[in-house]
Amino acid sequence: MANNPIINMLKVKELRERIFFTFVMLAVFRLGSVLTIPGINPQALTAFFNSQTRGNAFVDYMDFFAGGAFSNFSVFMLGVMPYISTQIIMQLALIIFPSLKRIAQEDGGQKKVAAWTRIGTIFVCLIQSVAVTVYARSIPDAIMISNRVLFNAIVMVTVTTGTMITVWMGEQITARGIGNGVSMLIFAGIVARLPSAVWELGRMVHNGDINLVFVVVVLIMFVGIIALVVLEQQGQRKIPIHYAKRVVGRKMYGGQSTYIPFKINPSGVIPVIFASTFLTFPIQIATSFASNVRWLNKLATFLSPTGWWYNILLVLLIVFFAYFYTQVTLNPTEIAKQVRENGGSIPGIRTDKTEEYMQKVLNRLILPGSLYLAVIAVIPTVIQNLFGFPQSISMLMGGTSLLILVGVDLDTMSQVEALLKMHHHDGLVKKGKLRSRNL
Fold first, then answer.
1. What is the pLDDT of residue 153?
2. How does pLDDT run across 7-56, given as a tens digit for each residue?
3. Which of 15, 110, 121, 294 could form a disulfide with 86 if both were Cys (CB 3.0 to 4.6 A apart)?
């Protein structure tokens, strides 16, 4: 009993406080997801969405990332998506404009970039909140405020404030809780919708809308995908490094061998989140204004989450962001520089070729890793088209949700494990049960 990891987690004061703080923040996030924006009639929303027997692909797509908050027209209906979109734009700007990169590398530069990202998030929220007002007017009896200007102002202020609160909560979870805060909020939204998806699936099987055999096949796929995601997340390519002996004063350093672990998928689930978020903004704008603008109507049809063009773009963006994010967070130039400065070298590789070799290894890992992510991400479309599953269920039981759930879970487990070992406790899993595969 003394080695029970749950009891050990509760014994460590720092870990206990972090877990409690995370649960409080997630509870507040879920509460805000059901608080309807002032001026919106929740009964009209319920009647409208219940009348759509085949569901609404756009709303199901937005609800997937907002944890059901979008269909509720809640204060958190946009979730953290505008913030992630702005982060992508800012990271691209740092690469395109060298002057911005120099500012970011200065003392306090990262704080400036973070502040610019928050300011940019406000502008993105205001644009998306205008689309929300247009979409609300397409729902019969949804608006209870007759003054158009007043209603637009209330929605824009409420939605923008709600998004900035979720961003703040995400940052607080990262600093004072467990796991990456923004990812945890997305994780919580997906988990919160799983029970209703399972209930809906059971109801459809009972009514004969879906064949039970198809459900069993999908569940087997579900378990298999989880195993493959865990395998892919834990896989590593180890680059051996040998440090030459050197004398500093009267002491001798070096003369040892170690390795640099490169994951099969160095960027984790970030490419999937970035790619999906990147598509969210044009989909929302196009769908909201589709009834008034002909070319936006065509764009909304083109980018429909149930269509193949959306999934083709999703695959291409996942591959792009896998390369992009890996270069930002795992720069071979910087790694090679640190290895050389410490007297290290890769056996069989010339010192001046260290950077080139590491880049070559990364390129060989990123492409298959990103394609692996992309294949898993398009599984919901395959399930929906082959077995007739509704989008609301296929998205939650499909690839993107599993990638996010497993990726965030593994990341959180590693942080908990590190805190337990720092306080001289056993980890969550006994040695040998959860180890990285050396490829």
1. 92
2. 767 777 888 888 899 999 999 999 988 889 988 888 888 888 777 655 56
3. 121
Q: Tokens for 347, please give them.
A: 């056996």
Closest alpha carbon to 230 in 191, 265, 273, 194: 265
CA 114 and chain centroid, separation: 18
Whose structure tokens read 């395109």? 96
312 Cβ neighbours under 8 A, 6+ residues apart: none
Nearest Cα to 383, choosing from 191, 264, 156, 224? 224
The pTM for the full model equals 0.76
- In this structure, is the dihedral angle defined by the CA atoms of residues 89, 90, 92 and 96, taken in order, positive or negative? positive
For residues 37 and 162, give the distance between their C-alpha atoms in angstroms, rounded to a whole number: 10
Alpha helices in 56-108 (DSSP H): 57-66, 81-96, 98-105
> Which run of H or E residues covers position 262?
strand 256-263
Q: Convert the pLDDT of each residue in 349-408 to its tens digit.
A: 877 788 888 888 888 888 888 888 888 777 766 766 676 676 666 666 666 777 788 878
- E-strand ranges in 303-392 read 344-345
| Residue 167: closest CA among 153, 186, 188, 181 | 181
Nearest-angstrom CA–CA distance, 356 and 401: 36
What's the rounded Cα separation, in Å, for the pair 76 and 29?
Answer: 8
Distance CA 328, CA 344 (A): 23
The two structure tokens encoding residue 431: 């040695």
Across 95-134, b (16+ Cβ under 10 Å) vs e yields eeeeebeebbeeeeeeeebeebbeebbeebbeebbbbbbb
Tokens for 76? Answer: 């958190």
